[in-house]
Amino acid sequence: MTPPQAALLSLMVGILVFVLKYLAYHFTGSVALYSDALESIVNIVAAGAALIALRVAALPADPNHPYGHTKAEYFSAVLEGVLILFAAITIFQEAYKGFRNPHELQGLNVGVIISLVASGLNGFLGSLLIRTGRALRSPALTADGKHVMTDVVTSVGVLLGVILAGLTGIKLLDPLIAMLVAFNILWTGWQLMKESVGGLMDAAPRAELLEQVRNLVGEYAEGALEAHDLRARHAGRITFIEFHLVVPGRMTVEEAHSICDRIEEALKTTLHEVEISIHVEPESKAKHHGIVVL
């Protein structure tokens, strides 16, 4: 499944889930179920934004964007975080109204069944999006999948609370659950925005990936002396890697180029979608630290 296909599936399922959740709210009049349905609207808008971002990210490099368009995915994830924050504020408002004017819940049996079906669809979609996003290294799909799975957890909590409110007759439980839902999605929105802003600001990748790069360079740079000033960053699914490679001063350009080709082939085979820049230097430029060639 390609990223645009996964995003289109997310959009279609999101619309269906919203309809089901709104029906559950319609039958019960529950503020908590209303808040759950409102979060599904965020899923729909986010899926649409992800679809557009993925199409832009797939565009090839051009004179105005020589490094490609892959960072477009981060804008989708940031937008999703903002929408989640907006949804949380709206839910707080509805919960406050529920505290001021609590009411009896109606049609719980039908509402709970409909909401369970919607949660099952969301669970399937969320796990699919996360697997696909990680396999294709797509920040937009992974963020969408994590949000959908958070929605599943939220929905289960809402259902349990609504059932408890119906069984005990405690009217204030319903708006209280809605308030807890709002706090939960606020946390999710914050995490999404933090990760996406890190990508836009060229935050360093995880330490494990840098260590893997160091090991590969040290193993496949035979003939060179050392490598230093290693830097890496993610731009959507692509990882950009650059470093300085120190070679003996008597080495020919062709020999040094052959070493660079060998390193690049090893990195691309292991890490797949990477762009590599290697600056070759003579031994007089050695810093005597960094990656020691085996």
TrEMBL record:
The chain crosses the membrane at residues 7-28, 40-60, 72-92, 112-131, 152-170. Keywords: Membrane, Transmembrane, Transmembrane helix, Transport. Belongs to the cation diffusion facilitator (CDF) transporter (TC 2.A.4) family. Residues 8-201 form the Cation efflux protein transmembrane domain. The keyword Transmembrane applies. It comes from the Bacteria. It is found in: Membrane. This is Cadmium transporter. Residues 205-283 form the Cation efflux protein cytoplasmic domain.
